[in-house]
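Exercise: predict the structure of this protein bound to pyridoxal-5'-phosphate.
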Amino acid sequence: MSPPTPERLRARLAALQQQDLPVHGGRTLAYVYDSGLAEVDALAREAVAAFAGSNGLDPTAFPSLLAMENDLVAFARTLVDGPDTMVGTVTSGGTESCLLAVLAARDAHPEVDGPSMVVPETVHAAFHKAAHCFGVRTVVVPVRPDRRADPAAMAAAMDASTVLVVASAPSYADGVVDPIPEIAAAAAERGVRCHVDACIGGWVLPYAARLGRAVTPWTFAVDGVTSLSTDLHKYAYAPKGASLLLHRTPALRRPQYFAHAGWPGYTMLNPTLQSTRSGGPVAGAWASVRAIGDDGYLALAERALAATDAIAAGILETDGLALAARPESTLLAAVADGPLDVFTVCDEMAQRGWFVQPQLSYAGRPPSLHLAVSAATDPAAFLTALAASVGAAREAGPVAVDPGVADLLRTLDPATLDDAGFDLLLAAGGLTAEGGPDGASTGPALPERMAPVNALLDVAPPALREAVLVAFLDRLARPAGIPIDGEA
Ligand SMILES: Cc1ncc(COP(=O)(O)O)c(C=O)c1O
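Solution:
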């Protein structure tokens, strides 16, 4: 049988994409960031396509990719007060940048047995992944009541095994900037590296400062900051797959590199975790950054920050909602201020075409709604949908979890569960994979309303949440063909 025609495949791709959250329109307030600049997006996608087959593995074979990478780092240097010595690398995303910062810190200290890193409890999960991957112990320090890292407690937590200290600008869950000058000073005093995770704020905070807003110092202008991550595929509005890891000096970056000549093939020489690196994301990011430019980013930041202010003010005026913290960039966390079920608010927003991300309760904090506001987000339309959603959620009342089930979830040790046990739990929560022919998964068959699922996850301790969601993902990720129209 001959393969389907390109037209049929294009139609199928378009139909598949219909299942996804929209990446344009400013109504998806997590995962994607929308400049609202259609021409820039089109140009960036052309650049991705043109360089999709190029390989950043060898900069002598593909010098164009090296040139674009160096140009992106040079642009970023102007945003992060980078000294002349600053160097950087394009990675595949924020998590890879954070992983590499940890790897470099660990390998800078081969003499340290059992290396550790000191992180605030609000640090992004990427650092826990790094700890897991690279055998670096995390020393997690509680944050202050204002949800910012506690510099004195972090300083006290450092010891001879500490190879890295991390702070966020801002933190994902709360949207606040840690007191980086104090944290970096404490690290520098002990000769320890200090990484600033500006993955989500790195392309906004410089412009916020230029617009006259008060911004906690977070760049290389702060003594003691040794490395910094800033994502191109977030607020630089580049296509997915691009972040920057920046180091104050080449010497600090050196242990990030990996080389291996001890085999009969080419000498592997990698600055990142990948070896073959598609040129697409670098070219897409380069096209975005050059097309938008410094003035363009200033205007986009002004729009996104103004929208954030308007949404924050609207939330404060909404009966039943409050803010976890006053926003310092473009992130907001909304919490219930009374008997409102935020998970139901999420569902109601989804019904009105808005995606807001539920954040489960953690360590005494209530559940919240995460909003990453883009330049394309219309705050008035958002607040109209929010008011209606809050009203509907109030009418529906909170999702009740059966007390017996709640007790079970609180005490269940995931290590005692086998596959059948996870199947039962997933079925009870309504989390199943849609069955295709032969029982193969064709995707998630999620319940129409996610609030009951979130309410169950919310009472489960983190280890059980992890185990249940891993079991869910495992069941989703099974071989299954996609029928093309006209085929059985
Ligand atoms: C502060 C921070 N660090 C790291 C990451 C991880 O980035 P990515 O999802 O691109 O891997 C994020 C993502 O939102 C983030 O906000």
